[in-house]
Structures are given as C-alpha cells and as structure tokens.
Amino acid sequence: MEIRLKNIYVGERLSRETTAFQATLYINGYRVGVITNDGQGAATMYRPIDDRGVALIKEAEFWCKGLPPVIFSDEMVDCKPVTVPMELEIYLDNLVTEWLNRKDLERFRRKAEKEMLTAILFGVPDRSFRVMKYRNPIAGMIRFNKGVEQLRLDIHKKVMPMLQENEKILNTNIPDGIIRLL
Question: Which pLDDT value is given to residue 182?
Fold first, then answer.
C-alpha cells in the first residue's frame, strides 16, 4: 500500500504540544482527503473527500495494524521499552516528521554550502559545524600556492587539533590533497 502526503503546510506558530500541519492525503495514487493537526496535543485528523476515499482510508487503517509496533526505547515500563501498536494516525504523523527532518537537513546543507565559500567548516556531517572564516573566498585561495599553503597550515595547525570525536572537515571545495598532506 502506498500512503503519501502532498502539499504539506506546517504552522510553526500554531505548534504547541505537537506539530500543527495540514496536508493532502493520497492512498495508492488517489487523492482521498486532507489530514490536519491543530498542534495543541490532539490527535491527527483525516477527512475523506468521497466514498472511495472512505474505503481507501479503511484499507489503510487495516494495513497499518499489520505493521510492526512503534518502540520508544527512551521510555521504559517494567524495564522494557514502551511499544505502541501501529495505526494510520501514527503512520501519518511519522510521514510529517520525516518530511520535517528532510527540510531541516536541506536547510542545514544550504547553510553549510554558503559558509564553506569563505570558511573551513568542521563538525559532524549533517548535524553541526563550526567555522574558521577567511576574508577571501576559498576558491580564490586555492588558485595560488600561497593560498594553498595558508589553508594547509590552518587545517593542520589550527583546525585538526580542535576536532572532537566524530568531527571532520566538511568542505567539499578544498581538494583532499590540501586536507590530507602536511
């Protein structure tokens, strides 16, 4: 079964206890209706637009019940992680969460790409970074031996000693030879 969301709108200002959103729900390629969450802690609601939508939503509810349960390993009861049976509402909430995570990752990567034009970036890939800024663009520096040497020295004498566990140099615009060689 294919369950997809399109036209997702998230209302950041409306989100309190949960994420406030609205999206168009498609099941097996058919537009069945709209899903919404008011962001106040209530359930995610889905409304079919016609009888076929009602039937497809019922099929999707049944299908979701056959999926593995959701395991919350950070919440324990009797020394066991909390598990909740999968249902359509949880499945839809997970789709919205995945969409938000992709958007956050895209935003992070765009910011990193912009920063690396004039800085050495180092940190945990796709999670966090720190910068060592330059006045001039990196692309201009690597055209000249003096710029290459400055980058090499800064990387090996300033940046490398500051790297923590799981961190690495994130620049894609600095040739590997400059980063690896002393």
Answer: 45
